[in-house]
Amino acid sequence: MLTTEENERYTRVGKGTPCGELMRRYWHPIAASGQLPEHGTKPVTILGERLVLYRDRSGKLGLVEERCPHRRGGMVFGIPEETGIRCAYHGWLFDGTGRCLEQPYEQIVDPESTFKDRVQIGAYPVEELGGLIFAYVGPEPAPLLPRWDFLVDPEIVRDIGLAIIPCNWLQCIENGVDGTHVPYLHGRFSDYVLERLGRPDLRRHIGGSDATTGWEPHKFGILKTRIPHGSPKSVGNPLLFPYIDRQVDDSMQIRVPMDDMHTFFVWYYTFGVEGQAELGIQAELPQDPRRVPVYEVPVPDLDEAGNIPWELLDNNSGQDLVMWHSQGEIADRTKEHLGRGDAGVILYRKLLKEQIQIVEEGGEPINTFRDPEANRSIDTSVDNYKGFFGHLSGKKVNRTLGARKYSVIYREAAKRIEGEEALSGPIY
Questions:
Q1: What is the pTM for the complete model shown?
Q2: For residues 290 and 327, what is the distance between their CA atoms, to the nearest angstrom?
Q3: Alpha helical stretches, state H, 118-201
Q4: How far is residue 342's CA from residue 143's CA, in Å, rounded to a whole number?
Q5: What tens digit of pLDDT does each residue of 104-149 get?
Q6: d(CA 402, CA 195)
Q7: How far apart are CA 181 and CA 428, in angstroms?
Q8: 48: left (phi over 0), alpha (psi -120 to 50) or beta
Q9: I want to staple 422 with a disulfide (CB 3.0 to 4.6 A). Which of 94, 174, 301, 414 is the partner?
């Protein structure tokens, strides 16, 4: 268990907090490119800051504070111009660096006015990569946006699932290093869910051997190893610090702290040549980042009468999400009792503690990159073990894992291979 002080230290992400200062050394995904394919605005929250993301008419992205520095009008209603964004209230125009370019009335009454040169809106750098939009809200000079292999491979087809989880980021990422939950939450509980849905004949049967068997430090974070059910060999997959969980099926689960009590969750599915052929994908390559399919993943919760939405719990994402936020907005780790199966959780907390201390001592934490040559494509693969659970099981598309139930690509494949009715019933 942790002390109250330790729990606060590891979970709070606002400015000036130990974990918040660590997180401000990284680039964070704040949206999918497909959510803002053309000029427009979108409100976002990252590390407790409420901001407005925009794309101007030239296609360039910007990220500014949520209110105009003039009369505090909401910038989410701003008008994207050819360069920058204009406040809808009085027309002040700002570029992506926050510099004020125009103040229409001031310049009419005084063409020589230099007032605009003395006004700035808060702004942060943003970059687009692999169908995601990233922001950096930390101290300058900013590190390079990591070009992880799955973000830059031109032969990969992608789709992206999104959700906002009403709980702290740490209980979401700790699930990624909690191996013993797999055979129970995603096995026995799955069977119980199917029973409640009136389909006890549909059983999942994940064996105990699917639990993670080992944890060790890795150059990018933590290496997890497991023996898949029915397989004679172990496979490994890394957790890329601070919160990217690379799955053995070459998908990514990314858990981004929006504020202390909300997490922006990204399911990032990738399909290499083999996976594309298996699911019958015919996509134009390289994939236009603004055309990467984006879908919302529902977050299960009790309704007002206390009823459980069983129909949302027949898949891994639903099962995981409900466990995370059922721990509370911020889990009280002073009351937990860790056992031998929690070795991964303990190792992650140790790594988090070490990285917070490095930042406090003026150093740079793990996975901050500054050498462009070393950042062309960062190899995160371990075993190159394609299709750990397999996309197909006989003539059935496996949609139980992660958020595959809602994935645009997996749904299309299921409809094509199994028929339209495959999308209406429970998955298993």
A1: 0.95
A2: 36
A3: 149-152, 169-175, 182-183, 189-196
A4: 33
A5: 999 999 998 999 999 999 999 999 999 999 999 999 999 999 999 9
A6: 21
A7: 17
A8: left
A9: 414
